[in-house]
Every structure is written in structure tokens, then in C-alpha cells.
Amino acid sequence: MSTTQMLKGIIDGCLLAIIYEKEVYGYELAEKLEQYGFDSFSEGTIYPLLIRMQKEESVSSTLKKSTAGPKRKYYTLTPKGEEELQQFIARWEKLQSNVNLCLRKQ
Amino acid sequence: MSTTQMLKGIIDGCLLAIIYEKEVYGYELAEKLEQYGFDSFSEGTIYPLLIRMQKEESVSSTLKKSTAGPKRKYYTLTPKGEEELQQFIARWEKLQSNVNLCLRKQ
DNA sequence: TTCGGTATCTTGTAATGCAAGATATGTTGA
DNA sequence: TCAACATATCTTGCATTACAAGATACCGAA
Questions:
Q1: Which ipTM did the prediction report?
Q2: Nearest-nucleotide field for A28 (CA, C1')
């Protein structure tokens, strides 16, 4: 993952972090991101990302019955996903530092 | 500018911040970004951005002779650009806080 | 006069976030 | 019973983006 991916891929990292914390399903992820202050990540953003991440073997999923509604697809991190989370954190911290260097000057 | 633009448009904000600090030309901007820790923003990224920002009247430019080489196009912020810089700073701070909320949990 | 460094710009590509909407399941109440 | 609603996932198509690669041009010095 290059710097490009970093700039564009901030949500990926957030998803990894939330999944790491606790097994969650897609719909729940959208709600959590909103709780954390993001302005509305539609499912049109999240589901394709989860599918991609599963194809890349960063997450795995299992279907479970819901109390109300169709089956939920719960996601957990694979070892590869955990590694990617660590790499994301490192890149995110570098990005923060770089951008803040640009801004501090004024 | 939406959240999408925010995620993708971090470099825009950095350019605005650097130009605000001091009149600069494109080639110089690429060097500064590298100084600040960014991993190599090629001119293929920066020049199209500057052209777009000028079209949107966030920056204005004047040509000046160089000590060595072709004329340099020096950029300064317009009032609109200054306003956008302030908006970028606000969005950047919100983004930092949101992402760090996701990460802090683990 | 040619070579290397400086400087800007263009073209084409892959990836991204998302709006919009399709699809499916379960609960509830009229 | 069955219509309405909330839950839940997935797909399609679009505009934007960062960037690699390379074209163009100018200048000074060897």
C-alpha cells in the first residue's frame, strides 16, 4: 500500500481498527463510524470495502441469525488483517505529522 | 467540499498552507512537501492541482525570471484561498479526531 | 554546441467514495 | 392474512483523484 492508498484508504484502516476491537457486521460498522464523527458512510462505501478486504484475506466472515431481519455477516480480522492494521497506524501517524508540519508554519 | 474531497484532498490543503506562508512556485512546492516528510509528490500531481486551484480562483500566479532555467510561476493565495485553508484546517482536525477515536479503542 | 539541471505541463490509468437503487428477511399490527 | 416497516446486504455507474511516464522548454557552463 503506497501513500496514494494511504490518502484514499483511511476508511479501510478505521474498519480494521473497529473489527479488531470486536466482531461486527457491515450495517453495524456504518453506525459506529457515524458515532465516531464520520459524516455518513453509506453502505455503498462499506460493503464493497469489506468484500475487497475479504478477497485480500484481511478479514473473514461468518453468517449469524439476526434478532430482526436477514442474516448478519460478522467480520473478524485475520493475522494478515492485524498486520495491516499495524501498518495503517504507522502510516496514519506519519501522515498526521507531515500534514501538521505543513500547517504549523502559519 | 464533502468528506470525500477531504479524504482525497489532503494535499490541496497542504499546498494552500505552504503558499499562505510564502509565495512559491510549483517545483519548490514539490521539494517542500518532501522536506515535510511526504514520500515524493511528483510534479504530475502538483501541477494539475495548481492549475485546478487557479481555475477555481483559490490561488493566483505571476511569472518571474529564474536564476537558472525557465520562468517560474509563483503562486499566492486569493481571499477565497485563505478561506478554503481555514476550512481545510477545520476538516483536517475533525478527521484526525474521528480516526483517532477509531484507533484509541484497542 | 551540447549537456545537465531547472521548470512546467499533458496524457492515460487504476483506485476510490458514494449516490441510487435492487434484493431479501423478519416483526408488527390492522 | 398481509401490508408496512426496519433491518441487512449487495450492485451499478459516476466523478474525482494521485500518479507514472513522458513531452516541452529554458538556461548556464564546460
A1: 0.87
A2: D8
